[in-house]
Amino acid sequence: MWLVSFRSNWFEEASGYCGRCLSQAPVGRRSINHTPHLLLTLVTCGVWAVFWVQAVRSLKPWKCLKCGAAVYKLMSTRLESDKKRR
Ligand SMILES: [Zn+2]
Question: Helix 49-57 vs helix 34-43: angle between axes, to the nearest 10 degrees?
Answer without folding.
Answer: 160
